[in-house]
Amino acid sequence: MGNEYYFLSEKERHFFEALCEAIVPEGEDSAKDPGALTVGGLSYIDSSLCDMTPERQKYFRQSIYSVDVLSNSFFSKNFYDLDPIQRNQVLKELYLNPKTREQMFDLRSIVLEAFYSDFHVPNYTGMTAWQYVDFGGKRISDVKKDWTFLRIWKGQDDRE
Amino acid sequence: MTESDSAVPYDYDAIVIGSGAGGGPAAFELTKAGRRVAVIEAGGFYTTNDFSRFELLALRNLWWTPRWTSNYEIGLKDEIALGMGRCVGGSTTIFTAVAHRMPDWNYKEWFESTGIRNEEGLPFSREDLEPYYDQVEKDTSVRQYTEWDEGLKKINQGFTKLGHPFHSVNAYINKNCDQSGCLFGCPTEAKRGTLVSYIVPAVLLGAEVIHNSTVTKILFSSASGEKTKAEGVEYINDMGEAKRLRSRTIILAAGALNDPFLLWDSGIDEASGSSPSSKQIGRNFGVNTATIVFGRFDDVLNNWVLHPLSGQMEDFAQKEKGGFLLEASEVMEGPLSFAEFIVDEEGLPLWGERQKEILRAYKHYAGVFVNIHDENDGRVLRDRETLQQKFHKPITNKDKERISKARELCREAFNEAGAKSTLDSIYASHHVQGTCRMGQDPSKSVVDLNCESHDISGLYVVDGSILPSVIDANPSLTIMALSLRAAKHLKSLPRA
Ligand SMILES: Cc1cc2nc3c(=O)[nH]c(=O)nc-3n(C[C@H](O)[C@H](O)[C@H](O)COP(=O)(O)OP(=O)(O)OC[C@H]3O[C@@H](n4cnc5c(N)ncnc54)[C@H](O)[C@@H]3O)c2cc1C
C-alpha cells in the first residue's frame, strides 16, 4: 500500500509531483519540515480524483493541460521540467489570467488538502501537517480521523 | 403533468425543497399545524455525533464546493468564492451562529428596491417582522454571547483605542457551548441552527426528510383560463433513481444560488408566458462581499478553539457611514481553510514556502471578518452555450473603497493591539441573497408578500433569495423570520 495509483497516468503523476513541490514544498529536513510529497500527497490527489464525477475529472485534466500549455508557451517545456522559479511564474500567470483563475485555485486546493488536512498515506509514520503547524487543543488533538473514504486508505486501520 | 397524474392523490400537503434557514422554520410550523410535510434536501442528514474537527471530512460532507463568480466575463478582475452549506440544516449547520435583526434603515431600502408594502398597504417595516423575529429567537435560544476568546480581546483593545469598541453578538447558542467551533457542525448541540431547532423537531412530529436527494424539477399544471399551479416535484434520490412526488404547495428554499436554476429547469419561463416577474429570476443578486484581515501576535492565541465571531462593531455598517460591518475573531477554524484564504500584498493567493511560514505561525493569528454593504447588481445565469451555471457579482469601485477603508481600519486596530503584521484574504461570501426578490410589483420581484410566486399559484420561495436588497446584518435571522411569516399565511389556507 502507499504506492498504488487508481487514476493518474504516469505523466499526470509527474505533473502533480511538480505541483506538490511548488504548492507545499518539502524543507531540507523532511522529518522536521514535511511537504505534500513527504506525507504521500500524490495518493491523496489520485484517490480524490478517482472518486470525482467524470465531468470533474475532465475538468482537472483540462486544468493540467492549461498549465502545460502555459509552461510550453513561456519556457518550451512541460511544467514538470521547469525549475521552481519558473513553476511559480507559470502558476502566477495561470492565476492572473481570469479564464484560468478557477483552475489555478482548484489545483492549488487539491494540493493544500493533500497536506494541510493532516493527510498521510498508511505506511507513513513521520510528521504530518497538524503537528507541523501545531494545530491542536480541545476536540482537535484527540479527533479520530477515519481516512477510509479515500481509496488509498480503504481496508487500512487508522494510525492514530 | 398528464391527466392520469392528476387522478393520483397528493402525497403531501407541502413539499419543502432545502432544509436551511428558509426551509426549516416553515417545515416545522406546517408540521406542527398537522400538515403532511416532506423536506427534500440535496445534502446528507448528519447530526451532533457526526460533527468533529476533522476539517477535510466536514468540508466534503457539509459544504458545497465553493462556487466562484465569473466576473471576468463582464470585464472585471476580482472574483468571489461563494460558500454555502449542503446538508440537512443547510448553511445554518455550518454557520457561525450570529443572530441579528436587520437594522431599521434596511426596511427603507427594501421599500426603495421593490416597493414592498404590508397587508395594510404601508411600507413593510420593523413591526411587520418583529413578532416573527421574537418567535425565532425563542425557538432557537438566541442569547447574548459574552464568552470572548483571546483573539477577540486583543482585537477589541485595538478598536477601543480607536474609539470603536466591539460588542458581544447575539447568537443561536445555548449555555452548553464549549467553544469547539462552528464551521464544521456543532459537536455539542449548543448551536441551535435549523437542524436542531426546526428539522429534528419537525421529524419528531411526523415530517419526512428525504436527504441526499436533489430536486431537479418543480412540476406545474395549467387548465385553460386558470393560473398555472404547482403540482409536485421530480428529484433524484440517494440511489440515483428519478422520483416524483405530488403536492399543491411547493416551498422552494434551496438558497439564492440554486433557486434560479431550478425554476428555469422547471420551465417557469414558458409556464408564465415569459412574464415580467419571471424575467426577474436570477437578477438582483447581492452577497455582502466579505474578506478577512488577520493580525499576527507574539502571543499564542490558538484562535481556532472558540465560537468564532463573538464580537461585532457596527459603527460603519450603514452605507452612508462607510458600508462595512466588522465581526471577530475568525481564523477559519482549521489550517486547510486558513491556507485557502490567505493572500499576499498584491492580493495573490499564497503557496509555497511563504505560505508554510505563515501556517507555522497559525496559532498567533486572530482575524476580523469584514462584510460590506454591496449593491444588488449581480446576476445568476446559465451560459447559453455550455449550459454551465454562472455567477456575476461586480466588486464596484464603491465596494473597493469600502473594503479598503475597512482593511485600513483593521490594520490600524491590529497595530494598536500590538500585532506584528497583518495579512489579507480572498474575497468570499457566505451571505448570498436576492435572486428571487419579494415585492408586490411583478416587474421588480418574483414573489409577493406571502412569498408566493407572482406567476405560479402554490409555489412559494422562502429563503435568502427573497430579500429585496442586501441587509447590514447576518441574514439568517431575517430569513427564518420571513419563513415563519410565510408559514403563518400557509396555515391560514384550507388544506389542499
Ligand atoms: C460559513 C457560513 C457562515 C455563516 N454565518 C452566519 C452567521 O453567523 N449568522 C447568520 O445570520 N448567517 C450566517 N451565514 C449565512 C446563513 O447561513 C445563510 O444566509 C442562510 O442559511 C441562507 O438560508 P437559505 O435557506 O437561503 O439557504 P441554506 O441555508 O444554504 O439552505 C439551502 C439548502 O437547500 C439545499 N438545496 C439546494 N439545492 C437543492 C435541490 N435542488 N434539491 C434539494 N435541496 C437543495 C442545500 O443543500 C441547502 O442545504 C453563514 C453562512 C455560511 C456558509
What would the keywords be for this entry?
heterodimer, A: 160 residues, mainly alpha, 6 helices, 51% helix, globular, B: 496 residues, alpha+beta, FAD/NAD(P)-binding domain, eight-stranded antiparallel beta sheet, five-stranded parallel beta sheet, 13 helices, 27% helix, 18% strand, binds flavin-adenine dinucleotide
What's the SSE blueprint?
The complex is a heterodimer of chains A (160) and B (496).
Chain A: H1 10-23, H2 41-50, H3 54-75, H4 84-96, H5 98-116, H6 129-132
Helix pairs in contact in A: 1-2, 1-5, 2-5, 3-4, 3-5, 4-5
Chain B: H1 3-7, E1 14-17, H2 23-32, E2 37-40, H3 55-62, E3 67-68, E4 81-82, H4 104-114, H5 126-139, E5 143-145, H6 150-161, E6 167-171, H7 194-204, E7 208-210, E8 214-221, E9 229-236, E10 242-246, E11 250-252, H8 259-265, H9 268-271, E12 290-296, E13 311-313, E14 324-328, H10 335-341, E15 342-343, H11 352-360, E16 365-372, E17 379-382, E18 389-392, H12 397-416, E19 421-425, E20 428-429, E21 459-461, H13 476-492
Parallel strand pairs in B: 1-2, 1-11, 2-7, 4-20, 11-21
Antiparallel strand pairs in B: 3-4, 5-6, 6-13, 8-9, 9-10, 12-16, 12-19, 13-14, 14-16, 15-19, 17-18
Helix pairs in contact in B: 2-7, 2-13, 5-13, 6-12
The complex binds flavin-adenine dinucleotide.
Flavin-adenine dinucleotide is lined by residues 17-23, 40-43, 83-87, 90-92, 94-98, 183, 214-215, 253-256, 258, 262, 309, 430-431, 463-464, 474-477, 479 of chain B.
